[in-house]
Amino acid sequence: MKSIALGFALFFVVSGCARSTATGTPAPTAADAKKFLDEANDATLKLGTESNQASWVSENFITDDTSSLNARANQRSIDAAARYAKDAVKFDHVELDPVSRRELDLLKVSLVMATPSDPKEGEELTGIAADMDGEYGKGKWCEDPKKPESCLDINQITNIMRDSRDEKKLRQVWEGWHTISPPMRQQYTRFVELSNKGARELGFADTGAMWRSKYDMPPDAFSKELDRLWDQVRPLYLKLHAYVRMKLREKYGDIVPANGPIPAHLLGNIWAQEWENIYPLVAPQNVDRGYDLTRILKAHNTSPTDMVKTGERFYTSLGFAPLPKTFWDRSLFIKPRDRDVVCHASAWDLDSVDDLRIKMCIQPNEEDFTTIHHELGHNFYQRAYKDLPVLLRDSANDGFHEAIGDTIALSVTPEYLVKIGLLDKAPDSSRDIGLLLNKALEKIAFLPFGLLIDQWRWKVFSGEVKPADYNKAWWDLRLKYQGIAPPTARGEEFFDPGAKYHVASNTPYARYFLAYILQFQFHRALSQAAGCTLPIHRCSIFESAEAGKRLNAMLSMGQSKPWPDALEAIAGTKQMDATAILDYFKPLDAWLDQQIKGQPVGW
Ligand SMILES: [Zn+2]
Rounded to an integer, what distance in angstroms lies between the CA atom of residue 174 and that of residue 488? Predict the structure, then answer.
């Protein structure tokens, strides 16, 4: 998943106190609220820019010094955000214009973790959060603890899960990685108690309700909404699951049950969250799509700058202004030879106006070509909302930013490659199944996983799941949504949720589920606006001024309005709709029906 540096959105911690029970002080006025918001906007811009600059430098010149300068700048930004979130409550009963009210509401729900007002408890919570994050980051599994060279970190584990087809090896590595998290179990229990206490002091039922309150609807309505979307795509997931299970049984034999859940270690990913790495195991015969973009890019001697220029041209063809000169002067496209940098692709908006950049170590291959189109989506979004008050400069909700980049990436079709001169002729549609299956292994397989991470946390934060059942509840959900089972029994001596980064680092996850749903809905709506009459998966909005107008109408709203309004601007409806996914994968759905005829479906 591509990361995006928004700076201002990084409000992790509040070291705050409860609402003051002031007596005798005059009630705040609209003018007080305005003054408060002016200050909050100014400080957010100033601290955010400083923090972005420090992050940029530390990721471009990795040293101990740049890292501690970055941590300090970041902390100042986080502390300020926490202060403003707490103080915003003072104006709850002041009559205000809609824009100011929106800004205050957004400040109040901006926190991911609220520390209790008791300073000792606040410090304890902050310490636990940092510890769990650190334990994950340092996490290693050593086949022989006496031999440091046998120790594997998450990157090495990831590579083995991706490449190995040796069931015993995969099981060993899978179990190995899950040894990093049992030490977090006690900490997590305490973390839940304390962060809930902080959330309650801010008026939320618990931390999970605080997270769900960011979505312009009551927290419980939001959970129901996600379940409704999942029910729309579940039949297609069941078919994909049945097909993959059948193929894995051909490869691994009885270790994969004919009609039960798929063992979690055989799907090419340590969390079984995306399955495209096992595409070669499940690929149908004779569906080679007939061209190799990586080979074409290499044959054309395409430079990284050429690739980014091509990406920019996609957006200018929709009517967006070209990127500023500073983008080309300040971005990083090539891995430097003389220093360590963070190569993970990211998009930046350093001054929240027009100091846009991307940072990635570009290789001339298809993946990077698509990623460039994705990253630039963040940049064009950022620039589209630059004229709003600082507090409103963000995506409509946290699913929208990722969804935009992916929406544009869905337009990188063979027809588009023909138009820009990289391909002579688009292959005929008989070649589409391979492409669609590969995409389904990434996007459809992810959906139940994207949903269940926060299903588990919401239940844990609300107390519905007690500490004594943490692991059982985790595997119950993985079975229910994904149809996945652990390779060996996992009792309460383990803490398997903690072996996933976003749990250990307390990063909410529902945004990824939303992004995966929304990108197809956006793509379908924009393709219609562009007048595309091909099957949706073949549509590209390249060169469509009409689609560009629709897209810009939504992007320029930032988060000034509730997200259903932004959705309406692009898709003509206020409701999220996962049927766009079914439309996109329609040929695959029919193909899967044939493949699994007579096979069991479900678990
Ligand atoms: Zn992204």
Answer: 10
Measure 374 CA to ligand 1 centroid, in angstroms: 6
Q: Which two tokens stand for residue 532?
A: 């595309």
Helix (H) or strand (E) holding 347: strand 346-349
- What pLDDT sits at residue 3? 42
Let me know: does 412 contact 394? Beta carbons within 8 Å.
no
The reply to whether 93 belongs to the active site is no
- The rounded distance, in Å, linking the Cα atoms of 510 and 373 is 24
Q: What is the pLDDT of residues 419-429, one digit of tens each?
A: 999 999 998 88
State the distance from the centre of ligand 1 to the C-alpha of 378, rounded, in angstroms: 7
Amino acid at 448: P
CA of residue 476 relative to chain centroid, distance: 23
Q: What pLDDT score was predicted for residue 23?
A: 56
Annotated catalytic residue: which of 124, 135, 415, 502?
Answer: 502
Q: Cα of 259 to ligand 1 centre, how many Å?
A: 36
Q: Which parts of the chain have pLDDT scores under 70?
A: 1-24
**Beta-bridge mates of residue 4:** 347
pLDDT tens digits, 210-235: 999 999 999 889 999 999 999 999 99
- pTM, entire model: 0.92
Helix (H) or strand (E) holding 62: none
Report whether 5 contacts 375 (CB < 8 A). no
pLDDT of residue 188: 98
Q: How far is CA 299 from CA 59, 91, 228, 312, in A?
A: 32, 62, 47, 21
How remote is the CA of residue 506 from the centroid of ligand 1, in Å? 19
Instruction: Verify whether residue 344 is a known catalytic residue.
Output: yes
Active site residue 300: no
Structure-token pair, residue 125:
């919570």
Active-site hit among 344, 464, 468, 590: 344
CB 328 within 8 A of CB 48: no
DSSP 117: S
Assess whether 375 carries a catalytic annotation.
yes
DSSP state of 152: E
User: For residue 323, which of 335, 334, 310, 336 has the smallest C-alpha distance?
Assistant: 310
Is 502 assigned a catalytic role? Answer: yes
Q: How far is CA 575 from CA 103, 315, 517, in A?
A: 23, 26, 12
Backbone angles phi, psi at 323, to 5 degrees: -70, 150
Residue 24's pLDDT is: 65
Beta strands of 153-273 (E only): which ranges?
A: 262-263
Give the whole-angstrom CA distance, residue 521 versus residue 583.
10
